Amino acid sequence: MSILQIILAIFLPPVAVVLEKGVSAAFFWNILWTLLGGLPGIIHAFWVLSK
Question: Which UniProt keywords apply (predicted)?
């Protein structure tokens, strides 16, 4: 993970996921998690980036 990916995962989780995986199921899941609460979206973004 680069510094840019970490910063994006904290402030714009869906953008970090779409840059890593493209427009996929992970991106839509991340949007859902981010809308349900900021912290779940951030956790999911870090999980996707670390895989």
Answer: Membrane, Transmembrane, Transmembrane helix
Write out pLDDT tens, residues 18-48: 999 999 999 999 999 999 999 999 999 999 9
Structure-token match 């895989």, residue found? 51
DSSP 8-class letter at 24: S
The pTM is what?
Answer: 0.89
Number of domains in the chain: 1
Burial (CB < 10 A; 0-12, 13-18, 19+), residue 40, is: middle
Domain around 11: 3-50
